[in-house]
UniProtKB/TrEMBL annotation:
<dbReference type="GO" id="GO:0005737">
    <property type="term" value="C:cytoplasm"/>
</dbReference>
<comment type="function">
    <text>Catalyzes the reversible epimerization of D-ribulose 5-phosphate to D-xylulose 5-phosphate.</text>
</comment>
<feature type="active site" description="Proton donor">
    <location>
        <position position="177"/>
    </location>
</feature>
<feature type="binding site">
    <location>
        <begin position="144"/>
        <end position="147"/>
    </location>
    <ligand>
        <name>substrate</name>
    </ligand>
</feature>
<comment type="pathway">
    <text>Carbohydrate degradation.</text>
</comment>
<feature type="binding site">
    <location>
        <begin position="177"/>
        <end position="179"/>
    </location>
    <ligand>
        <name>substrate</name>
    </ligand>
</feature>
<dbReference type="GO" id="GO:0019323">
    <property type="term" value="P:pentose catabolic process"/>
</dbReference>
<keyword id="KW-0119">Carbohydrate metabolism</keyword>
<feature type="binding site">
    <location>
        <position position="68"/>
    </location>
    <ligand>
        <name>a divalent metal cation</name>
    </ligand>
</feature>
<dbReference type="GO" id="GO:0006098">
    <property type="term" value="P:pentose-phosphate shunt"/>
</dbReference>
<keyword id="KW-0464">Manganese</keyword>
<comment type="similarity">
    <text>Belongs to the ribulose-phosphate 3-epimerase family.</text>
</comment>
<keyword id="KW-0862">Zinc</keyword>
<dbReference type="InterPro" id="IPR000056">
    <property type="entry name" value="Ribul_P_3_epim-like"/>
</dbReference>
<dbReference type="InterPro" id="IPR013785">
    <property type="entry name" value="Aldolase_TIM"/>
</dbReference>
<keyword id="KW-0479">Metal-binding</keyword>
<feature type="binding site">
    <location>
        <position position="35"/>
    </location>
    <ligand>
        <name>a divalent metal cation</name>
    </ligand>
</feature>
Length: 221
C-alpha cells in the first residue's frame, strides 16, 4: 500500500455529528482520507460509533475511509465494517492474540489491513508483523479521547518503522494519530510518517477547510 504524498486524515470523532453532511462538505472533495475512531468502552474508556455511522460517512465522501477499531474482539466486526464501506481496517496488537489470523481476515474482506500499538507497547512486539501489514498506526497519545497532547517520544517507533520498512523492502504506510497540529505534523513527517490523523486541529478550528490546508502546507515543508 503506497501513498504518493503526505496525507492528512481528519478524524470523524471531532466532527459535529448533528450536521455531518455540512462538516464533511467543508473538506470534501479535497479530502484524501477520513479517519474513523471506533471505541467500545472496554478496550479504551470511551464509546463512539459503529458500522451505521461508517455507512453514513461512506455516502457523504469519496475519501478513503480509514477505520480504526479500538475494541476487544475486533474480528467479530471486521466484515460488518467492510460492508459499511471501510477501505482500511486497523486493529490493535494488544486486542488480537491471533494477530496474523485477524490481519488475514481483514484482507480477505477486501479491505487493507492495519495494525496499531499503544504508547506503552514496545516496538519489538509489533516488528514481526510488519510484512503482514498495509498500514502501521503509531499512537502518539493514549487511545480513548481526542484533544490530547502529542507524545514526542513515540517518534522513536516511527523512526524504527521507517528504517525497517526500507531495510526489509516492505511497503506498508506509516500513520500517526494523536495531538497532530501544524507544529507536530512536521515532527512526525521528519521521523518518517506518511499519514497524519488530525481531529481537533481540523474540525474544531474556526475554518476546517483552512485548517486542513495549513496542515498540508506544514507537512509539505
Amino acid at each position: 500500500m503506497n501513498v504518493t504524498h503526505p496525507v492528512i486524515a481528519p478524524s470523524l470523532l471531532s466532527a459535529d455529528f448533528s450536521k455531518l453532511p455540512e462538516e464533511l462538505s467543508i473538506v470534501d472533495p479535497s479530502l484524501d482520507w477520513l479517519h474513523c475512531d471506533v471505541m467500545d468502552n472496554h478496550f479504551v474508556p470511551n464509546f463512539t460509533f459503529g458500522p451505521i455511522v461508517i455507512a453514513a460517512a461512506r455516502k457523504l465522501t469519496r475519501a478513503t475511509l480509514d477505520v480504526h477499531l479500538m475494541m476487544e474482539r475486533p474480528w467479530g466486526m471486521v466484515d460488518e465494517f467492510r460492508k459499511a464501506g471501510a477501505d482500511v481496517i486497523t486493529v490493535h496488537l494488544e486486542a488480537c492474540p491471533q494477530t496474523r489470523e485477524v490481519l488475514r481476515q481483514i484482507r480477505e474482506s477486501g479491505a487493507k489491513a492495519g495494525l496499531s500499538l499503544k504508547p506503552g507497547t514496545p516496538w519489538h512486539a509489533i516488528s514481526p508483523y510488519l510484512p503482514d501489514l498495509d498500514l502501521l498506526l503509531v499512537m502518539t497519545v493514549e487511545p480513548g479521547f481526542g484533544g490530547q497532547a502529542f507524545m514526542p517520544d513515540m517518534m522513536e517507533k516511527v523512526e524504527a518503522a521507517h528504517r525497517e520498512r526500507a531495510a526489509r523492502g516492505l511497503d506498508f504506510v506509516i500513520e500517526v494519530d494523536g495531538g497532530i497540529n501544524v507544529d507536530t505534523v512536521k515532527v512526525a513527517r521528519g521521523a518518517g510518517a506518511d499519514v497524519f490523523v488530525a481531529g481537533h486541529s481540523v474540525f474544531r478550528a474556526p475554518s476546517p477547510g483552512a485548517a486542513l490546508s495549513a496542515l498540508r502546507e506544514a507537512v509539505a515543508r
